[in-house]
Amino acid sequence: TQLLEQSPQFLSIQEGENLTVYCNSSSVFSSLQWYRQEPGEGPVLLVTVVTGGEVKKLKRLTFQFGDARKDSSLHITAAQPGDTGLYLCAGEGTGRRALTFGSGTRLQVQP
Amino acid sequence: KAGVTQTPRYLIKTRGQQVTLSCSPISGHRSVSWYQQTPGQGLQFLFEYFSETQRNKGNFPGRFSGRQFSNSRSEMNVSTLELGDSALYLCASSGGTYETEAFFGQGTRLTVV
Questions:
Q1: Within an 8 Å CB–CB cutoff, is residue B92 touching chain A?
Q2: Is the pLDDT of residue A1 over 70?
Q3: Which terminus of chain A has a smaller tally of CB atoms within 10 A, N or C?
Q4: Is the minimum CB–CB distance between A10 and chain B shorter than 8 Å?
Q5: For residue B11, which of B75, B92, B88 has the smallest C-alpha distance?
């Protein structure tokens, strides 16, 4: 069974602060995706990383895939209230198309 | 392009009843996956259908079943409902650049009383 652990589980910060969310596993993943989910809605795909060591930027969000493709991080610079939500990482296992989701990081950005 | 549509949005059922949830994927997407989301267990994979065939299955009891039609629309059925089945059921369609990238619907909130 492939497990993805996210940390921290909860994060409450002030507008303008920086933060990093981590997604770790002992398993290797073919690719890893990050989603954001707002209350009452389904998760929305933010990014997919495929290559070990890959770094992708989406405005103030920076995503990194570990060299060994077992972990990933999401860094948000100068957080804004609109960044509030549940952040989920999801890994595609090698040889299995189904996604394994992490437990999520609930982020609240106070104005 | 229209997104993933799930119906109904909310549902209240009594223990022991059965329920059918519906999902219409993004046009052109042939893969539909179902997930259960609860505060305690997070997002858990139920099953995936591709071209009317179940391609992957999660670790859920046989009370949970699904099917996919020739137009890629999918239904999920839960029989003999239990209180613990109360959850947000999410459907996701895939078929973009990366085959596993999931585009989710808004979900169906099922409450079992």
A1: yes
A2: no
A3: N
A4: no
A5: B88
Q: Does B98 touch chain A (CB under 8 A)?
A: yes
Q: How far apart are CA A71 and CA A27, in angstroms?
A: 9
Number of Cβ atoms within 10 Å of the Cβ of B58: 16
Question: What is the full DSSP assignment across chain B?
Answer: ----EEE-SEEEE-TT--EEEEEE--TT--EEEEEEEETTTEEEEEEEEETTEEEEE-S--TTEEEEE-TTS-EEEEE-S--GGG-EEEEEEEE-SSSTT--EE---EEEEE-
Q: What is the DSSP letter of A15?
A: T
CA-based R_g, chain B, Å: 13
Of B35, B42, B99, the CB nearest to A104: B42
Please list the rounded mean pLDDT of every run of 10 residues in chain B (113 residues): 91 98 94 93 92 92 97 97 97 82 95 97
Q: Each residue of A71-84: pLDDT tens digit?
A: 999 999 999 999 99
Residues in chain A within 8 Å Cβ distance of B101? 33, 45, 48
Q: Which residues contact A17 (CB under 8 A, 6 or more apart)?
A: A78, A79, A109
Min Cα–Cα distance to chain B from A18, Å: 26
Bridge partners (DSSP) of residue B90 are B35
Asked if residues A59 and A45 have their Cβ atoms less than 8 Å apart, the reply is no
B23 touches chain A (CB under 8 A): no
